[in-house]
Amino acid sequence: MTDEAAKPGHKMFTSMQDAIALVTGGASGIGQACAARLADQGARVVIVDVHSSPGHSSIATKHKNHVEFVVADVTNESQMLSVVEYIRGKYRRLDIVITSAGICEFQPTFNFDNNEPHKLDTFQKILTVNTLGTFNTIRLTAGLIGLNAPDADGLRGVIVIIGSTTGIEAEMGLVAYSASKAAIHSMTLPLAREFASVGIRVVTVAPGLTDTPMFRVNPAAAQEGAKKKWASLAAVPKRLVTAEEVAHMVTAVIENRAVNGEIIRVDGAARNF
Ligand SMILES: NC(=O)c1ccc[n+]([C@@H]2O[C@H](COP(=O)([O-])OP(=O)(O)OC[C@H]3O[C@@H](n4cnc5c(N)ncnc54)[C@H](O)[C@@H]3O)[C@@H](O)[C@H]2O)c1
Q: Which atom of ligand 1 is nearest to the CA of 130?
């Protein structure tokens, strides 16, 4: 990083090599692919995640000087404030935020076989991590992005939210997850409008079924079933989305300054799950 880049008030990055990025959920799956792609393009990336997965150590080793890992829970105000203070202290600025931290769990709203309603704490946990955690990250990081001096377009930075096609149309059993993703989709336009005055774009990338550890925790038979169903619904390609394809869209959004306030599907035109 140049001395100029280290000064607060430095204009928004013109190439990834000048950019400082924060990626929540960056130790795994889509977040990790985003962090790797940004680092490959020269950005400095701070990953925020709750655990030290093997994925985290491999990404940190591969991108030694470009990726660092900070343990924090996106739902925790003081931990996320500490992350922002850490970035402010070390880099003096922040340009890109990608919110990829999330959890998913299947549960019927009412199980008619054993008369069991959906657990309220499961619903609460999913909404807390996916929705509140995303909002917490955005509300605490926007101020630091806003300190960048605006460029000729009045831009200071960009926030990319990882949504999901399940926020638009989801299969049964995913009521909590679907609600959590629909909620963050709904934040996109009001956030883009609110942050327009300071030049921060806000865009949601909504992946379809993506081959990541979140998907692979399912039993093998369930994975095979979901793959077949997805293939039958997708126009083309008739396979799961890859984390790298999602990361590709995320970096396209970061680079394309005209994209704002939009929800972009990455799903091979799969519909009606
Ligand atoms: N895999 C899919 O099919 C798919 C499809 C659409 C959207 N998504 C979304 O993409 C995002 C990434 O999912 P993924 O598939 O890469 O899953 P993943 O499980 O591989 O990665 C999610 C990461 O988020 C982290 N995380 C969870 N709770 C956290 C918390 N409270 N604080 C900080 N980090 C936390 C996890 O530790 C993990 O590293 C999620 O928001 C998910 O909802 C996934």
A: 41
Query: How confident is the model over 181-228, as pLDDT tens digits?
Result: 999 999 999 999 999 999 999 999 999 999 999 999 888 998 999 999
Q: CATH number of 3-216+244-265: 3.40.50.150, 3.40.50.720, 3.40.30.120, 3.40.47.10?
A: 3.40.50.720
228 C-alpha to center of ligand 1: Å? 22
* Residue of 177, 195, 230, 273 marked active site: 177
State which ligand 1 atom lies nearest to the alpha carbon of 55: 39
Asked whether the predicted pLDDT for residue 10 surpasses 90, the reply is no
Residue 57 predicted with pLDDT over 90: no
The residue ranges of every structural domain in the chain are: 3-216+244-265
Burial 238-252 (b: 16+ CB within 10 A, else e): eebbbbebbbbbbbe
Q: What average pLDDT does the segment 61-77 reach?
A: 91
The alpha carbon of 151 and the centre of ligand 1 are apart by a number of angstroms equal to 33
